[in-house]
Amino acid sequence: MRRTFTTFGLMIFACLNLSGCADAPGQKVANDTPITPGAISDFGVLYRANCAGCHGANGEGGGAIALADPVYLAIVDDATLHRVTANGIQGTSMPAFAQSAGGMLTDKQIDTIASGIREHWSKADALQGAVPPPHSSTDSGNGSRGAEVYATHCQSCHGTGGRGGQHASSIVDGSFLAMLSDQELRTIVIVGRPELGAPDWRADLPGNPLSAQDVSDVVAWLASQRPQFPGQPYKGSGKSTGESP
Predict the structure, then answer these.
(1) What percent helix, strand, coil does the chain show, rounded to 5?
(2) What pLDDT, on the 0 to 100 scale, is given for residue 144?
(3) Which domain holds residue 111?
(4) Are 52 and 100 contained in the same domain?
(5) Residues 6+ apart with CB under 8 A from 241
(6) 70, 146, 148, 233: most buried, per Cβ within 10 A?
(7) Average pLDDT over residues 3-15
(8) CA 131 from centroid of its chain's CA atoms
């Protein structure tokens, strides 16, 4: 009789002990299924992982323009935001993120990033009634006139010939220009770089905003300063790329 009771007691103890191991290492628990990268749908997570390194943790800008700039968001349309996020900008530092273009994000994730940027950082009154030059243009501009526009509107900060001044750095540096497309230059001329203290098209010369033609012309002048082979030694250095300093 005692042996039977002891065996029964051990069985009860084993069952109770096993029931207490539901949370032991290696045991599957509720909501324990891992999330695959393609299933991530939170804007904050996607932005931090893919955009913050260049555009800033809160869209404030850094190596690339500020995405949390309401003026920028007021002149760029949804289709452009989506296209650039998906396909990048060929020949520049902006990579493609969509799987269809060689990136790692799904179409739905691209939609989440593009729409989230506008939802988080746009403002209805960003332009305060002003009519900006168009974000894009088929006008190739006149570089010669662009030099005059530069001297009038930009030289006081960026110095003679765009080589830098007391208030701003060079904007004709070959490496800088090589990383930007003409469209990116146009965007910066219109919206400025507020995080760096560079004004938008209205405030380069207070009371005399840049016209659409002014923007096209100064972009043409800037583009004409882009070297054919960026990164090569400066003229007169007497050294080839492979020579030691």
Answers:
(1) 45, 0, 50
(2) 97
(3) 40-121
(4) yes
(5) 231, 232, 233
(6) 146
(7) 48
(8) 24
User: Which helix or strand (DSSP H or E) is residue 16 part of?
Assistant: helix 2-19
What is the structure's pLDDT at 244? 34
Cα distances (Å, whole numbers) of residue 4 to 7, 9, 14, 47, 154 = 5, 9, 16, 65, 98
Please, are residues 192 and 202 in contact by the beta-carbon 8 Å criterion?
A: no
How would you class 118 by CB atoms within 10 Å of its CB: exposed for 0-12, middle for 13-18, buried for 19 or more? middle
How far does the chain reach from its first CA to its final CA, in angstroms?
Answer: 96
Q: For tokens 């009860």, what's the residue?
A: 12
Helix (H, G, I), strand (E, B) or coil at 198: strand
In a domain, 103, yes or no: yes
Residue 147 or residue 167, greater confidence: 147
CATH code: domain of residue 112: 1.10.760.10
pLDDT (tens digit, 9 = 90+) per residue, 25-71? 556 565 666 789 889 999 999 999 999 999 999 999 999 999 999 99
Strands (DSSP E) along 93-233, which ranges?
none
State the Cα angle at 28 between 24 and 31, rounded to 5°.
Answer: 120
The burial class, CB within 10 Å (0-12 / 13-18 / 19+), for 19 is: exposed
Number of domains in the chain: 2
